[in-house]
Amino acid sequence: MSNLSKRSPARPAAILAVLGGLLQILGFAAGVVGAQAGAVDFGDFNPVLVVVLGISGAGAIAAAYYAVRGYRIAWGFSVSLHGTLFVVFLFATPTIQGIGVPTALAFAPTLLTGAITTLFAMAGRDY
């Protein structure tokens, strides 16, 4: 596979996807450490969600790497993963606000995944 052109919208999308993936893995680690220390009470949250967050973060980083290298399947996985995360984070925003997180911070993952999805979708003609 060939690398994408320098002007492809997939390049900034990949950078944002790696950033988002790292934040997801950080959230996973914080959830695990907090739960072990007894500092985090999941309450209505399912702890499985924390594990899924870490796995999808690692998948996002790997898919972004291969999408920039020109692999169509990685591009498709990135679009579908971030599109799904966009919807999940959009509907989870009120729940996140309910545990005391400010509105802007609760809405930030939605904006990030929306931007990644849009940029990867705009790069569709490059694949």
Protein model, in words:
By secondary structure, the protein is mainly alpha-helical. It has one domain. Helices cover about 75% and strands about 0% of the residues. It contains four helices and no strands. The mean pLDDT is about 80.
Compact description:
By secondary structure, this protein is mostly helical.
Lay out the secondary structure:
Blueprint: H1 10-37, H2 48-68, H3 72-98, H4 103-122
Features of the shown structure:
mainly alpha, 76% helix, 127 residues, elongated
- The structural class is mainly alpha
Q: What number of structural domains do the residues give? A: 1
Low-confidence stretches: none
- Separation of the first and last Cα atoms: 10 Å
Q: Give the count of helical stretches.
A: 4
Label the overall shape.
Answer: elongated
Q: Count the E strands.
A: 0
Mean pLDDT: 81
Q: Rounded to an integer, what's the Rg over CA atoms?
A: 16 Å
| Percent helix range | over 70%
Portion in beta strands: under 5%
Order of helices and strands: HHHH
The largest sheet, given as strand count, sense and whether it forms a barrel, is: none
